[in-house]
Write a structure and sequence with these properties.
Radius of gyration of chain A: 23 Å
CATH topology of the largest domain in chain A: Rossmann fold
Largest sheet of chain A: 9 strands, mixed
Number of strands of chain A: 21
Number of strands of chain B: 7
Number of helices of chain B: 4
Distance between the termini of chain B: 14 Å
CATH superfamily of the largest domain in chain A: ANL, N-terminal domain
CATH class of the largest domain in chain A: Alpha Beta
Structural class of chain B: alpha+beta
Oligomer: heterodimer
Distance between the termini of chain A: 38 Å
Chain lengths: ~425, ~140
């Protein structure tokens, strides 16, 4: 048995976990029905009486919630409490340039903090440790999510946020008597490389663990990060719609991510039929929040592809494990931890009608371990490019507009008309060379 | 005013070569060529005979082409001559977008091709005593 932050919950019997989930679900439905008009419509439309639910098996008959529902609810229409009870807002970008907004009550923040604290303890952290948090702080849930969890645990937080790699290395070297690092895996790789260039070997520091999330990563990446940083590297999973980082986390076994099942009911459904798959089979990851107050969600389909790992974990935790995310069932891509849909880019490019042609390509590469995104778009044949300044201004404007819509920096390249390959049927918009 | 061809060129190997090849095959004779480059792309500005044919041939070959009117000013091929032109332009606070010069070996005269941001440029230049060419700079 390894150390747990909350053993009574994390190692509860399956019977207890499931009966608590059934109870939670039975309480959730009347609450959604009463407080969120769009859920009332959904449930009425599906012919479901919120009082009729009797067991967890009934869950599969309930309607899904999709990212588009959140988008349509912008900003607060899916909140289940008055906004005066909300103490925090986070936001993530969605399809077609829109933003989905989530809100947390004081209790939600406490629950979230506990989920993150469990993740930290599972990675070997304790109250005596420092946590260097190089996730971005702000509307993105990474920075503040880890921050509150680490404080809840009683660890010493270094809220350095992203950027300024040189200072990051200095702080890791000088301010960290013992502890770990939390950031995206790609940023961790960049830190290790940059440190070496500056003559600091991070493997020689007392850094013990890393908690990496917000983007998919592989077992090879784990090996490489563990070697270059001299740490144990753990995956943490989350999304702002459900909560943020800490929805699921890896333990010392590094054999799947435990879902915090006292907070969330996890399902895997077939990506075509949307029916539950047999245990152990791959499909879309779906969560129902049973404890959340601010914006509780019923069967939210993340479109992340994974499976439930059958069997018990050697760590002693009884919460189900999901495998690392292996892909997406929609066209969402993750660039430096930020969700990006190619359609958002298209929307921006189309707003420059007459200057740009509607032919573009998004090229993803990895530069010095960090994701880089290049948007290549054709110039409209009618654009007067003879004044180079006008062309450069256009490039700047488009770059800025994309950065604003996506919340991620891009390299903008305007290319010759007809130079992007036309394809019959679905155009090849995305070239992922990472 | 003289007609200038502008060709948008991606910063990729072989684009200039391809452009020159198309012009050669169309039997277009270039008199002046000026390539402006940035990090990501270049623009080739060309003064040639048969501007319309050249533009059509380049477009057919997939190039992005525009034609622009530029002011072609005759200046003596002597030290200080260009300075006098710019002095007049600066004094009138006329804004130059860009400018390039060539010497015509047949006439031993230099020609300065300029694109201006200000519409009164031509009048200013003529007032200062310079001759402005029509569209047949190299065949007058």
């Amino acid at each position: 048995m390894s150390t747990m932050f909350n053993p009574a919950v994390e190692a509860a019997s399956r019977d207890h976990i499931e009966s608590a989930q059934a109870e939670g679900l039975c309480r959730l439905l009347p609450r959604l029905y009463a407080a969120v008009p769009s859920y009332r419509e959904k449930l009425d439309g599906a012919g479901i009486n919120p009082g009729d639910l009797s067991s967890l098996d009934d869950l599969q008959h309930l309607p899904f919630t999709l990212k588009d529902d959140l988008r349509a609810a912008y900003p607060y229409k899916m909140f289940a409490v008055p906004t005066r009870d909300i103490v925090r807002i986070h936001a993530s970008s969605g399809t077609t340039g829109s933003i989905s907004v989530v809100g947390y009550t004081r209790k939600d923040i406490r629950d979230w903090s506990e989920c993150v604290a469990r993740s930290l303890v599972a990675a070997g952290a304790g109250p005596d440790d420092f946590l260097h948090i190089a996730y971005g702080y702000g509307l993105f849930t990474g920075g503040l999510g880890l921050h509150y969890g680490a404080e809840y645990l009683g660890a010493s937080v270094i809220p350095i946020s992203g950027g300024n790699t040189r200072r990051q290395v200095q702080f890791l070297r000088d301010l960290m008597p013992t502890g770990g690092l939390a950031c995206t895996p790609s940023y961790a790789a960049l830190l290790a490389e940059s440190a070496l260039l500056e003559g600091t070997d991070l493997t020689q520091l007392p850094l013990r663990f890393g908690i990496f999330g917000a983007e998919p990563w592989s077992e090879n990446m784990r090996k490489s990060l563990e070697a270059s940083l001299g740490i144990d590297a753990y995956d943490i999973y989350g999304l702002s719609e459900i909560m943020g980082p800490g929805v699921a986390f890896e333990c010392r076994e590094k054999a799947g991510l435990h879902v915090n099942e006292d907070q969330f009911i996890v399902e895997i459904v077939d990506k075509d039929t949307k029916l539950p798959v047999p245990e152990g089979a791959y499909g879309e990851l779906v969560f129902t929040t049973i404890a959340k107050e601010g914006i509780p969600l019923l069967r939210y389909n993340t479109h992340d592809i994974t499976r439930i790992i059958p069997g018990a974990c050697a760590c002693g935790r009884t919460h189900k494990r999901i495998e690392r995310i292996t892909g997406r069932s929609d066209d969402m891509i993750i660039v430096r931890g930020v969700n990006v849909y190619p359609s958002q880019i298209e929307q921006v490019l189309l707003s420059f009608e007459g200057k740009l042609a509607p032919h573009y390509q998004v090229v993803l590469t990895r530069e010095a371990a960090l994701d880089a995104m290049e948007v290549r778009v054709e110039l409209a044949p009618s654009f007067d490019f003879d004044e180079i300044r006008a062309l450069e201004q256009l490039t700047q404007q488009v770059r800025r507009a994309i950065a604003e819509a996506l919340m991620v920096r891009v390299k903008m390249t305007i290319v010759e008309p007809n130079s992007i390959a036309r394809s019959e049927g679905k155009a090849v918009r995305l070239i992922d060379n990472r | 005013m003289a007609q200038q061809l502008s060709v948008f060129l991606e910063n990729a190997p072989g684009r200039l070569n391809e452009m020159a090849r198309v012009l050669g095959e169309t039997q277009v004779n270039m008199h002046a060529l000026f390539v402006a480059d940035t990090n990501d792309f270049g623009v080739a500005r060309i003064i040639c005979d048969r501007t319309e044919d050249a533009a059509a041939a380049l477009r057919d070959a997939g190039f992005s082409v525009t034609t622009t009117d530029v002011v072609a000013v005759e200046i003596p091929d002597t030290p200080g001559a260009l300075g006098k032109l710019f002095e007049a332009i600066a004094a009138a606070e006329v804004d130059i977008s860009y400018c390039y010069c060539v010497v015509d070996p047949t006439t031993k005269k230099a020609v300065s091709f300029c694109r201006f941001k200000t519409p009164n440029a031509q009048a200013v230049i003529e007032e200062a005593g310079f001759r402005i060419f029509g569209d047949n700079v190299f065949h007058s």
